[in-house]
Design goal:
single chain; alpha+beta; eight-stranded mixed β-sheet; seven-stranded mixed β-sheet; 15 strands; elongated
Amino acid sequence: MALAALDLTDREHDDFVRDHPHGHLMQTTPWGREKEHTGWTWRTVAVGRKGAGPDGADEVTGAALILFRRTPVLPLALAYCPRGFVVDWADGESVDALLAEVSRVARANRGVLLRVDPAVRIDDPDVRPVLESRGFTRTEPGEDAAKTLAQPALRMVTDISDLDRLEKELSQGTRQSIRKGEKSGLVYESAGREGIDAFYELMKVTGARDGFGIRSKDYFTTLVDVLSPTDDIVVSLVKLDHGAAADKARKAVEDTRAQLENARAKREKYPSEKADRQVAQLEETIAKKEESIPGFEAAHAQYPDGQYLAGSIFATCGTRGSYLYAASSDEHRNLRPNYLMVWRIMQDAAAKGVTTFDFGGIDASEGLEEFKRQWNPERREYAGEFTKSLRPLAGRIVDLVVRVYKRR
């Protein structure tokens, strides 16, 4: 049976994307609605065999979300399929049918350039040959991929399908950072829309500290609003309960005093430099804990409901999870709240059937990249970005405008 264009509902489109091995959050209709807030328009297309599915339903073999960005001056547009087509790239018939339908809809919306960046590994034997044989040209990222590619091709992705195994593979330092947060009065919250205000305040602090611009609060609110109905997004927050921290410090002092008594008794019986060091370390630990208690009590009076130290936005699409945004306070960084936050997100996501945790692109910030490395990620490279001209002359003009726009 010949392939034909299909008219899917938003739900049918999203179900296909979530269930497909090449599906991605950025190919769902909520992502299209989110991008409206930043000046894009969007359409969805699908192809398949009519009536060939179970109970006479249509059999979908390919789908795509197309975003359109109008040029500042000319009545033309860039057509962009974020994370590529949702299709079996080895199925040439479906690729051709989907490309034809995407091109038709793009031209109808004054599109002159079609850009795709499939979320498929670079060593996939089909993607690049399929695209280049159909008129696409691969974008060479050059020295600064951030200015030439819409999405990072290099990613850090952690397998969370077996958290017991992952926990054993994590470094001792990472496991200690998670436990330290749990023992220091940190409280994890899986919030919804009501968590945006606290998250955004942390985002402003992070942007100022690390020297990057941040999106508006409305952007994050809209992102949560469009994804919340499908339960595909989580706003996470970690706060320090200063009252609990004071109690934990007192308990730690009590426990350490008992250890100190044993250590002193042992030293009297078996004097040694090692015994002296152990006693000194325990005495130092007690002194630090006792010194921290008044500060926690004063902070508890100032922040009776706790003080937020870290926040993030995490989204899922089928079995794939994406760590979209993360932020942290300048205060109490020694408690490493982000470690507790990521571990709890992984636990909740794995319980819902998510198997991969995408930390995002490999960043130029050494600190951020080092944090991602702590979670035993796979360094994954995608096929890259490809562009096809739909109207050659106008396409060259738009391409120039887009390059200039990216450098702003």
